[in-house]
Amino acid sequence: MSKPAIQLGLRENWAQFSLLVLVNAFVGAMVGMERSILPAIAEDEFELAARTAILSFIVVFGVTKALTNYFAGRWSDRFGRKHVLVAGWLLAAPVPFLLMWAPSWSWILAANVLLGVSQGLTWSTTVIMKIDLAGPKNRGLAMGLNEFAGYFAVALSALATGFIAAEVGLRPQPFYLGVGFVLLGTLLSVFAVKETLHHVAHESKLAGAAEHDTLSQREVIARTSLTDPDLSSVSQAGMVNNLNDGMAWGLFPLVFAAAGMSLQQIGWLAAIYPAVWGMGQLVTGAWSDRIGRKGLIVAGMWTQAAGILAVALGSGFWVFVLGAVLLGLGTAMVYPTLLAAIGDVAHPSWRASSVGVYRLWRDMGYAVGALLAGIVADAFGLSAATLTIAALTFASGVVVAVRMRETLRREAPSEPAVPGTNCIEPEALAQLPGAVVIDVRSPAEYAEAHVDGALNIPLDLLADRAAELSTDAPLVTACGKGGGRSEQGAALLRELGFASVRSLCGGTSAWLARRPLPSRGA
């Protein structure tokens, strides 16, 4: 009996996709346990006074999760998504018990090391697996559903632990929930979740991936962090987003308590922000598939800044509610859209690694935000700390507005369904009058061998240097073995308005193998 054909899409993979949404809800619930009560435990049970010391658990969590995110992307490519997911759940098993019975604050920090590693493995792989299943068409919707499940569960868990703490005490009862979350998440991951690497292989074939066109880890890190204007803009926005989330996680409960809010009111406020964030992503993820990524990211960062400003300047419960709603709404606009933008730009052959690098920078924001907020709060007060984070969040939106390009690529109806059918054979290239060949590889690759007369414009610089090209001449993009970068370059030029663009079938290697020998005496 033959295996069923591999298909990409939410509808085609609805059963596994829905299962991964549920698994990610349990992942989010593990973080939600701490949201409303851990700062109170630090003050009441361990008598920590300095804001920086109280927020140290977020610094530890953020650093370990950020570093694990990077390795989760690499390991999921090497060992498979499912193995990494299961390992993450196994590492989460001791966390609820450490939070219940920790005799000192250092034990709480140890629990957050494990929680950070676990979150990096589990959340990263559920994101990557959903991107694998969804394919390019509904990537924003897929990320919206994923992040909705995770952060709505954060809200419910924060609300539940806040109410339990108000009724029976801060420990150990609120953390009983975590035992159930770990058990259910582990069982589903081991016995129900299926590997998605074969979906990656299928999409890579459709995208025209070639071995020569894959990137080294150093190249992926450089592109995602700095050299690619789209990927690096996304990475800094993700970092600032979690910078303000780290501040909200650790500092907002203290702001609310200083304003006279009760433990139950703090529980509600701690839940409203991730609840709006989670539910909003049901709309914003799919919305970004229709209107594009850039505008939502910019508007979202500025909406977050407005929400933080409301909390900084407010003093009553309903003003704090307004701030929490705005912060949640802005985060909902940004969070799935950033992940979708990474999926838009990164090729399937190195996408998981790029997601890992992005999530490294994004979750490092937890540590930066907690440290910065704690230092400023200790030196100048809680209000100054929140105002500082609001200013940084607004500035991040400005960076995206100035530097990032729109990454959503809308397919024209006339484009062929299968990449590669719109390429030109090397023999036909010589017969194409006035053709301009653009080698989209790196200068080092170009120097090794290239099509005679080809211009070298690396793919990551192509949009910036497109003005150098004639809009009337037929353009042919070339890479190493065809597909991959040359297809991406051709698609980009068509989007920029160049009417006649094709890629070179088989790339430079095919041209070298088939070029006519020079005639004698030539």
What this model shows, in words?
This protein has about 525 residues and is mainly α. The protein is about 70% helix and about 5% strand. Strands 1-5-4-2-3 form a 5-stranded parallel beta sheet. Helix 4 (about 55-80) packs parallel to helix 7 (about 105-135) and helix 15 (about 295-315) runs antiparallel to helix 16. The protein is elongated, with a radius of gyration of 25 Å.
DSSP strand (E) fraction?
under 5%
- Average the pLDDT over all residues and give the rounded result: 85
Which structural class matches the secondary elements? Answer: mainly alpha
H/E element order: HHHHHHHHHHHHHHHHHHEHEHEEHEH
How would a crystallographer describe the biggest sheet?
5 strands, parallel
Radius of gyration: 25 Å
Taking pLDDT < 50 over at least 5 consecutive residues as the criterion, the unreliable ranges are 208-213, 411-421, 517-522
Task: Specify the helix fraction band.
Answer: 55-70%
| Overall geometric form | elongated
The overall strand count is 5
Q: Mind sketching the topology for me?
A:
Layout: H1 14-35, H2 38-44, H3 51-54, H4 56-79, H5 81-92, H6 95-101, H7 105-134, H8 139-168, H9 176-191, H10 197-206, H11 217-227, H12 229-250, H13 252-258, H14 263-291, H15 294-313, H16 317-345, H17 351-380, H18 382-403, E1 423-424, H19 426-429, E2 436-439, H20 443-448, E3 455-456, E4 475-478, H21 485-495, E5 501-504, H22 507-514
Parallel strand pairs: 1-5, 2-3, 2-4, 4-5
Helix pairs in contact: 1-7, 1-8, 1-9, 4-5, 4-7, 4-17, 5-7, 5-9, 6-7, 6-9, 7-8, 8-14, 8-16, 11-12, 11-17, 12-15, 12-16, 12-17, 12-18, 13-14, 14-16, 15-16, 15-18, 16-17, 17-18
